[in-house]
């Protein structure tokens, strides 16, 4: 495990090598050390950088090449696979500014107590003004949400490649969850409960494109590339290009830290479901995409940014409840059991609104 500062004397994101879980020649004590490093990093910050995840640089280059080919299509071509006007199914293409970004912190805002929908439209108006387009993909075995694909002639090979990428990433998600189990020292029953936090048929692959933008608009907060939010999932695995701008909030200082892009490195952030499962041992990480660090962009414009997040999630019908290991006389249970589909529906119902904000 490597721990550095961010150049300003603040804690930076730890990098953990999980190759002991992908290289069968390595031994149990090496897996234990890697798992414990993963647990410690996520307990402290809710964020971690991961190497040894199994993807090569060449494989990631291919993934980003496909992503760029998708978003280089004309708007009319991309709209041959449109995201529906409502939140479900959460599949297909969404144009710039269509999706609204809310998190559990927004929902817990006291100003939202009377009329959630109406008040969110007032309070979070700024959050609607983010120049971003996306494409959502799930498992072909998901019986609740069917994928919405571009016609083959629009982008030949896209569907087959993305299906294979989804399966690879779902496997990585399972591997990382198993590493958490080793690091926590869970017994078999607790490990089984932990592994239910990743249903390989119910995760989500997302392709994101942030067009280039005037630097001044971000600095003056006229728009937000991606506003501060948490993810609803168990955890999110992210590959990002070298554009920069991803930041996370350190829960101990409330300061935002740069998640600097590094070639071949996977960034993981804890989501709401893991926070509930662990009774706040792991806290869902607030993060955003803002102005890249000084020296990485021109004076006037910030270049386009591409990223590939994968949301590791339980099955919709699975009830997430706190593991007894995280409960003690001085640490009572903080969260009632909840089905993932109920939690998901409450927040996502405001994510897509016809007419916009």
Automatic annotation (TrEMBL):
One of the GO BP terms on file: small molecule biosynthetic process
Keywords: Iron, Metal-binding, Oxidoreductase
Listed InterPro entries: DIOX_N (IPR026992), IPNS-like_FE2OG_OXY (IPR044861), IPNS-like_sf (IPR027443), Iron_ascorbate_oxido_reductase (IPR050231), Oxoglu/Fe-dep_dioxygenase_dom (IPR005123)
Residues making up the signal peptide according to the UniProt record: none
Coiled coil: none
Domain Fe2OG dioxygenase, residue spans: 201-314
Protein name, UniProt field: Fe2OG dioxygenase domain-containing protein
Organism (species): Podospora appendiculata
């Amino acid at each position: 495990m490597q721990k550095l500062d961010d150049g300003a004397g603040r804690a930076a994101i730890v990098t953990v090598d999980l190759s002991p879980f992908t290289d069968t020649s390595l031994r149990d004590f090496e897996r234990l050390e890697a798992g414990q490093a993963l647990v410690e990093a996520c307990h402290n910050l809710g964020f971690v950088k991961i190497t040894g995840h199994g993807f090569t640089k060449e494989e990631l280059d291919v993934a980003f090449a496909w992503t760029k080919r998708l978003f280089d299509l004309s708007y009319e071509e991309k709209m041959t696979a449109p995201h529906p006007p409502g939140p479900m199914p959460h599949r297909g293409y969404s144009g710039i500014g269509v999706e609204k970004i809310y998190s559990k912190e927004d929902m817990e805002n006291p100003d939202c107590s009377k009329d959630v929908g109406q008040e969110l439209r007032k309070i979070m108006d700024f959050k609607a003004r983010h120049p971003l387009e996306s494409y959502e993909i799930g498992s072909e075995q998901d019986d609740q949400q069917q994928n919405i694909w571009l016609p083959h002639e629009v982008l030949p090979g896209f569907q087959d490649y993305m299906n294979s990428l989804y399966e690879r990433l779902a496997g990585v998600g399972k591997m990382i969850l198993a590493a958490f189990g080793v690091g926590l020292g869970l017994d078999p029953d607790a490990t089984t409960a932990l592994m239910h936090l990743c249903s390989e048929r119910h995760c989500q692959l997302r392709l994101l494109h942030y067009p280039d933008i005037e630097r001044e608009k971000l600095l003056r907060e006229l728009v937000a590339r991606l506003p501060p939010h948490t993810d609803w999932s168990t955890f999110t695995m992210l590959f990002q290009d070298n554009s920069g701008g991803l930041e996370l909030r350190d829960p101990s200082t409330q300061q935002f830290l740069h998640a600097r892009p590094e070639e071949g490195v996977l960034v993981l952030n804890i989501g709401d479901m893991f926070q509930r499962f662990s009774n706040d041992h792991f806290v869902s990480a607030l993060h955003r995409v803002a102005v890249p660090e000084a020296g990485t962009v021109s004076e006037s414009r910030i270049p386009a940014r591409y990223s590939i997040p994968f949301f590791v999630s339980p099955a919709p019908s699975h009830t997430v409840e706190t593991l007894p290991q995280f409960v003690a006389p001085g640490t009572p249970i903080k969260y009632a059991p909840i089905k993932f589909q109920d939690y998901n529906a409450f927040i996502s119902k405001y994510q897509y609104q016809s007419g916009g904000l």
